[in-house]
Amino acid sequence: MVDSLKKPDLQEIRPGVKAPAKDTILTPRFYTTDFDEMAQMDLSLNEEELLAILEELRTDYNRHHFVRSDVFDKSWDCISGETRQVFVEFLERSCTSEFSGFLLYKELSRRLKGKNPMLAECFDLISRDEARHAGFLNKAMSDFNMQLDLGFLTKSKKYTFFKPKFILYATYLSEKIGYWRYITIFRHLESHPENEIYPIFRFFENWCQDENRHGDFFSALMKSQPQILNDWKARLWCRFFLLSVFATMYLNDLRASGFYAALGLNAREYDIEVIEKTNKTAGRVFPVILNVDHPDFFKRLDVAATANAKLTAVAESNQPAPLKALRKLPHIVNIGWQIASLYFMKPIDMVTKRGEVY
Question: Above 50 in pLDDT, residue 8?
């Protein structure tokens, strides 16, 4: 990479291989779960829908889609400075997230084979899609003379254990918010092609259909296990995961607003649209969703995003560690207070709206 285009944050573990981003509460995580409990799931309550989705996954609509054409065959040094840095960070976060999904789904497929064959095959086919996405993103990073060592990432990342029901909440939301993120960018650039700074965005329409199918699979899987959706604990956990996913995206995207500006997007307006649509989509299966129309909802996220920016500035300063810790504390407390206030905001009861009886 041309030295003038390098940023201190783009650290390398060896030439051309980017050091993984440091684990923080906002970075993509790698997950593991109770595979035996997952294998014992009885799918009979929603087997028909799951079989229909399995047939779609077998069809593999995008098997010829992720092929790089000659539009990539040029120098991308025209993307420079801060825009280059935040774009590489966007590619890295996206690649890490897709690769995390691949590892989890592949391991689920391996552990469930012979115990729950339909579920094992679904996870195997979904892992196929995630591997393609991760590989395509990593290849895109190489256009900026930087890649991730996915093998090193597999061994070096810490794995977070979630019980199966939490895996289902989290992966469902991850896939559905991924759909809305990709399709919103695609539609914007379709209307404003002058803002397409890099051709990977042309692939987002078909790409997001993979995300949508994966989300539909997890929705159908949750419907086959009504016990994880129909009690008071489910209501609390659904609120928790919705807020966690929304707040993580919002804080990350406002910090990287320069990337969205390069695409002709306002990061805050983009996130609001994605959050509103994801929240509405989640209402098809979750017993409750967040009241994102409440006048305080995005105001509190804005306060948290401002505090997060100050927290980042302190973390990146050259001050002694004890002083850093002291200066971080009020911003951490502020973020915690805003998120807690949002969590206890009255949610919207979707069971009543859908007219369901458990």
Answer: no
